[in-house]
């Protein structure tokens, strides 16, 4: 599991990011979905990644080195409502460009708020990842705020949306940063990929 987590740096372009070719796992999703909170939960740290009630807190590409062997990448959220449409588009393009250029990324975790019905921007983002052959999985966040039945309902709705464009839905994780839900599963998933890459 995670014994050590160190903040390495914040960047705005791919060519500034670490060059040592360690495996990377990126966390992305709409602004305020809980990316930074999930990262802190996985690392057992309260404020490794900065969280906030104000959407748009994370505006840079932030690198955390885990157990000296792989990186967690905290990305700025897309679709932040309080900036101009042009800025939102620029933002989305920056993230997309980073993900396309960054070949070290083993898997992107697309975070989806379990309390909110499927949003076009999330589906579009995933379709984009698929078209660019970028591997991704889904993590539903904040599941502590709903009872099991309602979480399940939203997940089924989301799956239905996804299956409009995909033959099979990607792997999914049910998470809560508050309760630690999904931690073991996500860390095991990452461990498996890291090990298969070692061989
Ligand atoms: P930006 O960096 O602004 O895009 O946001 P983010 O996606 O990093 O979200 P962040 O982790 O800052 O969390 C946003 C808000 O949601 C904060 O008020 C968190 O406390 C809350 N939150 C995040 N995860 C959970 C969770 O699992 N359960 C509950 N109840 N609240 C959560
Ligand atoms: Mg954040």
How would you characterize this protein structure?
This protein is α/β, with parallel strands linked by helices. It has helices at residues 35-43, 85-101, 120-131, 148-165, 183-198; strands at residues 5-11, 24-29, 61-66, 70-74, 105-113, 136-141, 172-174. The protein is globular, with a radius of gyration of 16 Å. Strand 3 (61-66) and strand 4 (70-74) form a beta hairpin. Strands 1-3-4-2-5-6-7 form a 7-stranded mixed sheet, sandwiched between helices. Residues 35-36, 57-58, 74 line the site of magnesium ion.
- Radius of gyration based on Cα positions: 16 Å
Number of helices: 5
What shape does the CA trace take?
Answer: globular
The end-to-end distance, rounded to whole angstroms, is 20 Å
**Helix-strand category:** alpha/beta
Largest sheet: 7 strands, mixed
Number of strands: 7
Give the SSE string: EEHEEHEHEHEH
Mean residue pLDDT: 89
| Cofactors, ions, other ligands | guanosine-5'-triphosphate, magnesium ion
- Helix proportion range: 25-40%
Strand arrangement in the largest pleated sheet: 1-3-4-2-5-6-7
Proportion of strand residues: 15-25%
Low-confidence parts, pLDDT < 50 over ≥5 residues? Answer: none
């Amino acid at each position: 599991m995670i014994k050590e987590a160190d903040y390495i740096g914040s960047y705005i372009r791919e060519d500034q990011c670490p060059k040592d070719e360690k495996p990377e796992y990126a966390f992305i999703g709409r602004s305020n979905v809980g990316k930074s909170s999930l990262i802190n939960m996985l690392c057992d740290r309260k404020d490794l990644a900065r969280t906030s009630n104000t959407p748009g807190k994370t505006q840079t590409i932030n690198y955390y080195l885990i157990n000296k062997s792989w990186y967690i990448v905290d990305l700025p959220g897309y679709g932040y409502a309080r900036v101009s449409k042009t800025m939102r588009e620029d933002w989305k393009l920056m993230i997309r460009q980073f993900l396309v250029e960054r070949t070290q990324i083993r898997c992107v975790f697309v975070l989806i708020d379990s309390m909110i019905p499927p949003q076009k921007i999330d589906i579009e983002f995933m379709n984009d990842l698929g078209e660019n052959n970028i591997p991704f999985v889904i993590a539903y966040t904040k599941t502590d705020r709903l009872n099991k039945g309602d979480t399940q309902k939203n997940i089924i709705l989301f799956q239905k949306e996804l299956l409009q464009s995909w033959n099979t839905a990607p792997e999914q994780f049910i998470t809560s940063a508050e309760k630690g839900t999904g931690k073991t599963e996500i860390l095991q998933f990452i461990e498996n990929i890291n090990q298969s890459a070692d061989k």
